[in-house]
Amino acid sequence: MTISVFLLDDHEIVRRGIAQLLETETDIEIVGEAATAAQALARIPAVRPDVAILDVRLPDGEGVSVCRDVRSSTTPPPACLMLTSFSDDEALFGAIMAGASGYLLKQVAGTDLVGAVRTLAAGGSLLDPKATSLVLERLRHGKEAEDPRYAGLSPQERRILDLIADGMTNRQIGAELYLAEKTVKNYVSSLLHKLGFSRRTEAAVYAERRRSAR
After folding, report:
1. Domains in the chain and their CATH numbers?
2. Are the beta carbons of 81 and 116 closer than 8 angstroms?
3. Response regulatory domain: from which residue to which, for each copy (predicted)?
4. 3-class secondary-structure state, position 125
């Protein structure tokens, strides 16, 4: 059977490189691509790929959020392979919480990426068992376990929440995190929705209480 794959990365040259690599394999077919989280959320349910390769960091969101959303809205849900340039414990935690089946650095060898796609398509996992057990332990005993709303925030949303608590405006947060002001506004709207707040002042008070409880 042919394995259908969807690619999400904001760099066109990266998408082209991955597509060329995978399509040299007779059992793998690229069925769609996207450069932003919004494009991916619109296209993935339509093409229903077996595997979705998702960049962790995107201009309008994060691959972890895309993973969580498409796995809950697409039938059958794709196996999600998170691809990132950075080794980040928070991103790994978020990926596992979102239901990702694999997590690889972009420095991975081409043959290993091909093997990863086949492993995920067959129902396997590429998440290190030790990392998974640490996440489960963190859920049992860490602060995130006390409030599932906070556990649902992406790593970037948590960083922005902390900066809101510091009194920063969207423009200042954008300068701090090298994001467009509009992108920050989208993050703020998302985290307010996830936390159940309507105003950023409520989020700031919430974040301060979390800090005090540590």
Report:
1. 3-141 (3.40.50.2300), 148-212 (1.10.10.10)
2. yes
3. 4-121
4. coil
What burial class does residue 164 get, using C-beta atoms within 10 Å of its C-beta: 0-12 exposed, 13-18 middle, 19+ buried? buried
Q: Which amino acid is at 199?
A: R
Whether cis (ω within 30° of 0) applies to the bond prior to 76 is yes
How would you class 44 by CB atoms within 10 Å of its CB: exposed for 0-12, middle for 13-18, buried for 19 or more? buried
How confident is the model over 195-209, as pLDDT tens digits?
A: 888 888 889 988 888
| Residue type present at position 52 | A
Q: Which residues contact 143 (CB under 8 A, 6 or more apart)?
A: 150, 210, 213, 214
The model's pTM is 0.63
Residues 6+ apart with CB under 8 A from 69: 41
Give the residue from 75, 17, 16, 8 showing the smallest Cα distance to 36. 8
User: pLDDT of 145-180, one tens digit each?
Assistant: 457 788 888 999 999 999 999 999 999 999 999 999
The sheet carrying 102-105 orders its strands as 28-34, 3-8, 51-55, 79-84, 102-105
